[in-house]
User: What shape does this take?
Amino acid sequence: MAHTKVSECGRFVVVDALHVDRAVFETLSAWAQARGLRVQDAIQIAVCAFNDAASLRDGSPSRLLRAIPVGLGGR
Assistant: This one.
């Protein structure tokens, strides 16, 4: 299991030795670059989208659109 710790601000979990499929990483990197974002931001948005989709399947309310800043697809 990867080593994890809570970020200094307390909002994030930092995951050491995270492995991402190269094709997925390249897609996220290109998506981020086209929007002036960091790859880390694209990965976080992708994880939020996954979490949101999983929550919707479980009947939980959607949080993704509130998490993405306006101009990136949020409302």
About this structure: The chain is about 50% helix and 10% strand. The longest helix spans residues 39-57.
